[in-house]
Amino acid sequence: MRKNGTVSEAGDFIDATLKRESSWQRAEAEQDRFGPGLSVYGASVGAVRGTVRDALRRHRELDRDGLTALSSELWAVPVFERRLAAVVLLQSALRHLDNSDLTRIEGFLRGAHLPDLADPLAVDVVGPLIAGLDGQARTRAEAVLDRWLRDPDPWLRRAALLAPLRELRKGEGDWARFRRRAALANHAADDGRDGGAAQIVRAAVERVEREAGGEA
Fold first, then answer.
1. Is 185:140 a contact under the CB 8 Å cutoff?
2. Architecture of 1-94 per CATH?
3. Torsions phi, psi of 51, nearest 5?
4. Using CA atoms, how far apart are residues 113 and 200, in angstroms rounded to an integer?
5. pTM of this prediction?
């Protein structure tokens, strides 16, 4: 693993702590659910969140570049808890993020392959990031989501649909834009080329409808 001073010190702390917080019973159960492409330590979601909080307290000197580099360092190793820690770290760093970070997040989404990772990235990172933008920055970010919606990768299409969920729940989102995106997603799903991919995307539409309640 690349070593880079404070960033890797924080990454090593997170990794070591997650291993200490692990449970072989949980690891065994989660490994069966996630499959062979992703290793599992067996730490709880609460332990992941607490570990990231502790790391940020220990390394208050991490700036925007350090935080985003740490997220990439954690994500680079295919271990579920490390990747979830990267998501939690980005959630904690939202005030530092801008349009330029969508490229990094897109890479994460392409490798997520699980609702447990892709959905919090979309709902709790991409959505709030874009909601905090205005003017041309917001327009450019929405264009990124439109591009994701046309991408062959179903996890990017799912993220584009889930990103506005928090705004829609609060009654502040753009239902018309969501309806257009959902129609495009459903049209792509109906071509029948990949039933599994279609279900990944349809589940996002269903979640938004269920949790945000549809347009009044």
1. no
2. Alpha Horseshoe (1.25)
3. -65, -40
4. 10
5. 0.90
Residue ranges of alpha helices (H) inside 21-164 are 24-34, 45-58, 64-75, 80-92, 102-112, 115-121, 127-131, 135-149, 154-162
Where are the chain's structural domains? 1-94, 97-216
How remote is the C-alpha of 161 from its chain's centroid?
13
Residues 126-159: tens digit of each pLDDT: 999 999 999 999 999 999 999 999 899 999 999 9
Let me know how long the chain is.
216
Residue in the structure block whose two tokens are 């000197």: 61
The rounded distance, in Å, linking the Cα atoms of 116 and 124 is 12
| Separation CA 4–CA 91 (nearest Å) | 22
Q: Per the structure block, which two tokens stand in for 110?
A: 């392409």
C-alpha distance from residue 143 to each of 127, 147, 184, 185 (Å)? 13, 6, 15, 16
Q: Which residues neighbour 61 within 8 Å (Cβ) at sequence distance 6 or greater? A: 6
Write out the two tokens for 156.
């990017």
pLDDT, tens digit, 9 for 90 and up, residues 73-127 = 999 999 999 999 999 999 999 999 999 999 999 999 999 999 999 999 999 999 9
77 Rama sector, left if φ>0, alpha if ψ -120 to 50, beta otherwise:
beta
Q: Token digits for 52?
A: 């990231």
